[in-house]
Amino acid sequence: MREYHCLLQLLCPDFPLELTQKAARIVLMDDAMDCLMSFSDFLFAFQIQFYYSEFLESVAAIYQDLLSGKNPNTVIVPTSSSGQHRQRPALGDAGMLDGVEASLFYQRLENLCDRHKYSCPPPALVKEILSNVQRLTFYGFLVALSKHHGINQALGKQSSL
């Protein structure tokens, strides 16, 4: 990862390390940041992170909301009959590994792309990725984005403009 960051600094001396680290995390696990990675794997992950960084930040928030059980359409109505609040059971590690339901995740992402003006991957390609699984983790989603041939082609067309 550090060598790729040095290459990026040849083009832009003040290129942020954080962006390179985020791209490396897509290819490698957090605890394996010192391992070797192929240039093509890094490049695909880097371009996803570079072009879609604002989108990915919003997607991370959506994923966390779904993981914690928050619904954007939920209306909380206070009642005077009980002063106690019901609490959700803790998700624990098992909930984190299971991920979220892919169809619900896609609905929220579709709404996100409709509402915001920043760059998003083509919605049809995101739908294609999410239609192949029932549940997924955020990391799994990032890996699928970076390895999807159609998304990489779409990014290639953007960079040649």
Automatic annotation (TrEMBL):
GO cellular component terms attached to this protein's record: centriolar satellite; microtubule
Key words, A-Z: Cytoplasm, Cytoskeleton, Microtubule, Phosphoprotein
Keyword Cytoplasm among record annotations: yes
Transmembrane annotation, as ranges: none
InterPro entries in UniProt: CSTPP1
Subcellular localization(s) per the UniProt record: Cytoplasm, Cytoskeleton, Microtubule organizing center, Centrosome, Centriolar satellite
Keyword Phosphoprotein among UniProt keywords: yes
Role played: Regulator of the tubulin polyglutamylase complex (TPGC) that controls cytoskeletal organization, nuclear shape, and cilium disassembly by balancing microtubule and actin assembly. Regulates the assembly and stability of the TPGC and thereby modulates polyglutamylation of the microtubule, which antagonizes MAP4 binding.
Subunit text: Interacts with PCM1. Interacts with TTLL1, TPGS1, TPGS2 and LRRC49; the interactions link CSTPP1 to the complex TPGC. Binds to alpha-tubulin.
Family membership noted in the UniProt record: Belongs to the CSTPP1 family.
Protein's name in the database: Centriolar satellite-associated tubulin polyglutamylase complex regulator 1
